[in-house]
Write a structure and sequence with these properties.
Helix content is 18%, strand content 48%. It is of the alpha+beta class and 164 residues long. It has 2 domains: 50 residues, no CATH class; 102 residues, Porin (Beta Barrel). The strands form 2 sheets. The chain has an 8-stranded antiparallel beta barrel. Strand 7 and strand 8 form a beta hairpin.
Length: 164
């Protein structure tokens, strides 16, 4: 009888240990949290262990295709009617705070901060470019400075768009 009680006691201890280990394992795996783990994202979740692909960045609000709503006003060449021309703003693969603006055959890299951006200082086809812009509602306001052989030009664009 004593032998049977010891067997039952060992079985109960084994069962209790197995249940306890099972609960610990379940609790440990239950603590994993999916979310955005990129600290530069607007929806960063410092409690997330696993990135679930939902990160959003300030630049996402700018992405889209915008059409010029009237004229381009330039300091040297004056006003040019370019209704129907488009600006395409796409993500840059360089950084999560960079965008690429493509317009009139030119693609410029820009740095985003909130709803504003700065055109990075760059030279393309002999022209030096700088500038800035911002989004206000569905309007994109852009100022582009270009210089070629000492001939500076500042052009101001007001665009309406559809962000994707």
């Amino acid at each position: 009888m004593k032998k049977n009680l010891m067997k039952i006691s060992k079985s109960i201890k084994f069962l209790a240990l197995t249940l306890m280990l099972g609960l610990v394992a379940l609790t440990y795996t239950g603590c994993n949290k999916d979310g955005c783990t990129d600290a530069t994202a607007t929806n960063f979740d410092d409690k997330a262990d696993t990135d679930d692909g939902t990160c959003t960045f300030e630049r996402d609000a700018l992405i889209g295709t915008y059409s010029v709503s009237g004229n381009i006003n330039c300091s040297q060449t004056g006003t040019t009617a370019v209704s129907g021309s488009t600006f395409v703003i796409a993500n840059s693969t360089v950084s999560t705070n960079k965008i690429i603006i493509t317009f009139l055959g030119v693609s410029l890299t820009c740095t985003v901060s909130g709803s504003a951006f700065t055109v990075d200082n760059q030279t393309l086809s002999g022209f030096a470019y700088t500038g800035n812009g911002n989004v206000a509602g569905n309007a994109l306001n852009v100022t582009i400075n270009e210089e070629d052989a000492g001939f500076p030009e500042t052009c101001i664009f007001t665009l309406n768009g559809s962000r994707q």
